[in-house]
Amino acid sequence: MNIITTPKPDKSSVGNAFLRSQDLVTITRRYLRQLMEESGETANLAVRDNLEMVYLARAECREMMRALAKPRGRVPIAGSAAGKALLARMPEDDVGRVLGALGLNTLTREAIDALPRTLKELRGRFYPIDDKEHAIALRCVAAAVFGHLGEPLGAISVSGPTARITNDRIAPLGVMVRNVAREVSTALGGIWLD
Question: For residue 92, which phi and psi values (nearest 5 degrees)?
Answer without folding.
Answer: -60, -35
